[in-house]
Amino acid sequence: MLNECAVLEALPQAASEADKRVRDRGATEKAILRAAKALLSEEGFQNFGINAVARRAGCDKQLIYRYYGGLDGLVEAIGSDLGTWVRDRIPEDTGGMFLLTYGDLMERLALLFLQALRDDPLMRRIVAWEVSENTEQVRRLAESRSKALSQWLERMKGSLAPPKGVDAAAVNAILIAAIQHLVLSASAGGQCVGLALKTPKDWEKAATALKRIVRGVYG
Fold first, then answer.
1. Are 31 and 58 in contact (CB under 8 A)?
2. Which structural domain, as residue segments, surrounds residue 46?
3. pTM: predicted TM-score of the whole model, two decimal places
4. What are the HTH tetR-type domain coordinates in residue numbering (predicted)?
5. Would residue 3 be called left, alpha or beta, if left means φ above 0 and alpha means ψ between -120 and 50 degrees?
């Protein structure tokens, strides 16, 4: 199987030189981005650098400068990719569920976000960095994630509105923060404030509690 950063000569000879360059660049960019995300997920920013990403991607580091403009551009690309993460992991398709109230909407978001965060080690890293590292790179990733979630909610809510007198922005922030803390605590120690979070049954119990909280506020 050809490495995705292979030289142009490895492509079919019948293709034009222009096609070769386009196809090679597209594959290389994807390989670099995948390598960067994997490296961040496994080792964090401490060992995140041009040389390390190039080694992981199996390509010359000059390609990172050429395609992304360097490390800052690569971080920017990862941030942009978070918008895709929200769209893929928290789909706007309601799966047959009718969103009749704002409570329906927030219940769906809470449960999807809970599962998405459990399934994605890089996103858990980003959330952990948000509360522990005040660096420009972390801020950019955190802002991209928050913006993508806000845009999802804005698109989905349509004419749905929270009950009068409820500060939805504050409630939703606390709800998201609670989900994040549950998942991070489970990842670190399999529990959160005495609540076991190891088995599917444990997580079902947590999901039920989340739904009750949402319904208690939004009806």
1. yes
2. 8-69
3. 0.76
4. 26-86
5. beta
Q: Angle 136-157/71-89 helices, nearest 10 degrees?
A: 30
Tens digits of residue pLDDT in 17-41: 434 444 588 889 999 999 999 998 8
Alpha carbons 179 and 104: distance in angstroms, whole number = 17
Cβ atoms within 10 Å, residue 11: 17
Three-state secondary structure call for residue 105: helix
CATH number at residue 54: 1.10.10.60
The answer to whether residue 2 sits within a structural domain is no
Transcribe 138-159 into DSSP letters: HHHHHHHHHHHHHHHHHHHHTT
Do 184 and 143 share a structural domain? yes
Give the tokens for residue 170: 């504050």
Nearest Cα to Cα of residue 210 among 189, 190, 195: 195
- CA 39, CA 72: separation in Å to the nearest integer? 15
How many Cα neighbours within 13 Å face the side chain of 104? 14
**The total number of structural domains that make up the chain:** 2
For 44, how many CA atoms within 13 A lie in the half-sphere containing its CB? 12
Residues 172-209: tens digit of each pLDDT: 999 999 999 999 999 999 999 999 999 999 999 999 99
pLDDT for residue 90: 80
Q: Which of 69, 92, 114 is the last residue of a domain?
A: 69
Instruction: Measure the CA–CA gap between 91 and 185, rounded to whole angstroms.
Output: 25
Residues 6+ apart with CB under 8 A from 96: none
